[in-house]
Amino acid sequence: MLADNQMADVNITAGAVKTPPKSFRILVVDDNHDSALSQAMMLSILGHETRTAHDGESAVAEAESFLPEVVLLDIGLPKLNGYEVAQRIREQPWGASMFLIAVTGWGQEEDRQRSTEVGLNVHMVKPVEPAALEKILFDLAQGEPIQGAV
Question: Does position 150 have pLDDT exceeding 80, yes or no?
Answer without folding.
Answer: no
